[in-house]
Amino acid sequence: MDIDQDFARAFPELSVPHAALKPPQPAIARLNDELAADLGLGPEHLRSTDGIRFLTGQGPLEESDSFGPVAQAYSGHQFGQFSPLLGDGRALLLGSVPAAGRAPATAQHPSALCPARLDIHLKGSGPTPFSRGGDGRGPLGPMLREYVIGEALHHLGIPTSRALAVLRTGETVMRERPQPGGLLVRTAASHLRVGTMQLAAQSQDDGLLRRLSEWAIDAHHPSAPDRAEERGTSLHLELLRSVAIAQADLIAQWMSVGFIHGVMNTDNMTLSGQSIDFGPCAFLDDYRAGAVFSSIDHQGRYAYGNQPAIGQWNLARLGECLLPLIDEDPNAAVEAATGVLGEYADRFQQQRTRLFAAKLGLRLPGEADGDLLEPVAEFVDQTLRQMEEQGEDFTVFFRRFHRTDSQRREELQQFADRSGLDVDGSLADQVNPVVIARNGHLQRALNAAETGDQLQLEDLLRALASPFESLPGLEHLSTPGAEDGAGFRTFCGT
Ligand code: AMP
Ligand code: MG
Q1: 404, pLDDT greater than 60
Q2: pLDDT over 70 for what percent of the chain?
Q3: Nearest CA to ligand 1 atom 14
């Protein structure tokens, strides 16, 4: 088995070797057979005693003398407050494996990431030197929640980390109440976060920062060097630009399906552009720009409608880290980085307009410029305002838009005629999911799973794997449940 601690070897400064806790009674709650097969990790093998040893971080799948988990060190702005040293307090990196066999991005969503290697990472694997008094554990429910949401995003064509498995540990962990312990085994293009760069930027010599930036470019943004050469700019400015564009595209995609990450701290934002670490995340039910579901987000910092601005705020923190590498002249460095933050805003707005136009079935030419995009964005905004006033369910509204004769649809047709655009209901059907991981349905499935009954969870995962169609027998998962609405709360289980 080709598992390699390439990151830890290259960055001993950012990796602390640490053994995973041995769970008293490990048992697989859910194995991602499809992903396991893509990675060449035989699902049957993973279910064996050896496989479970591997999934719990106790040893390699096959003979190897280089197996050794590490806790990664990073900093982070949490709800705007800077913590100079966070790090994996309940997580460990096992290493990376080749991802060559993975299915390519879909035609609909060509931007989905296809990295050459994928990290295998444990969450809930016991305390580490970064635990700061925490128990290092994960409750089963929140670990399964992360599994489900990763699958939901993946099948919607949105770049994301994905779980390989969730195991029961056989322990009981205390959160709001005693809960069964869980261990998440996840894959991601890497675990490089804005916060990783924030830690490297604190070191006295800029060698570490430079190496980390180059590593990130190599792993995730291979087009940056050519761009730097063409434009005569710094390679590190091009890293910032690449991350900014990847995040603009990602957050636009989140917005287009009503996804709320919930904890967009700088330590939960990747350099790759994949979604990661969505603890108290949720999908919108009724459209509300200010929707917040997380029980820990009292100020609404990470509300649905704030996500694009928070993305930019986080990128500004990344830009600050890179300044010394961008230009020797501090003023020139600030000016260049500020320019990229402006590009992020433009790119986000453009992508958002395109995605929402498609949701309405408006066909835009590939080369649409501001003169066309601006009125389209205005129409989208107006539609969203009306949805909010009328308490429309976000997902249902877009899916039904072309199936009902509404005044809104007539207005769209008139708008399209005026702008010389085509309206196409089948285009809308390709991008508007029928099924999302609705709060009520997901919570009910997780509650049942806690008691050992995973039927609802299996149904939900099956439905989420084909989000653009309604599967026979699973129709109930596309309708809002009675629990949905503004009062619903999600917990991250930290
Ligand atoms: P999160 O909000 O899940 O991204 O976690 C923020 C920080 O808290 C990270 O450094 C985590 O490793 C740490 N953390 C979260 N939960 C625990 C826990 N139960 N024990 C130890 N550290 C934790
Ligand atoms: Mg985190």
Answers
A1: yes
A2: 97
A3: 89
Helices (H), 156-294: 194-200, 207-220, 224-231, 235-257
Domain C-terminal end among 408, 431, 454: 431
> What is the mean pLDDT of the segment spanning 63-85?
93
Report the atom number in ligand 1 closest to the C-alpha of 88: 12
Residues in the chain: 494
User: The whole model's pTM is what?
Assistant: 0.96
* Cα of 276 from ligand 2 centre, angstroms: 8
Residue 118's DSSP bridge partners are 97
Q: Is the beta carbon of 297 within 6 A of some atom in ligand 1?
A: no
Question: Domain boundary residue among 167, 192, 217?
Answer: 192
Q: Average the pLDDT over 102-124 and give the result.
A: 68
Position 327 in a domain: no
Task: Judge if the beta carbon of residue 71 lies within 6 A of ligand 1.
Answer: no
pLDDT tens-place string over residues 135-153: 999 999 999 999 999 999 9
CA of 191 to the centre of ligand 2 (A): 10
What spacing in Å lies between the alpha carbon of 91 and ligand 1's midpoint?
A: 8
Give the H or E element holding residue 38: helix 33-38
**Residue 121's closest CA among 97, 102, 137, 140?**
97
In a domain, 40, yes or no: yes
In which domain, by residue range, is 50 found?
A: 6-192
- 475 found inside a domain: no
Please tell me the distance from the alpha carbon of residue 336 to that of residue 330, in angstroms, as a whole number.
10
Average pLDDT value over all residues in the chain? 94
Regarding the beta carbon of 399 and ligand 1, being less than 6 Å apart is answered no
Q: What is the pLDDT of residues 272-284, one digit of tens each?
A: 999 999 889 999 9
By the CB criterion, residues less than 5 angstroms from ion ligand 2 are 268, 277
- Cα angle 36, 279, 446 (rounded to 5 degrees) comes to 70
In a domain, 230, yes or no: no
**Which residue is closest in CA terms to ligand 1's atom 16?**
494
- Counted domains in the chain: 2
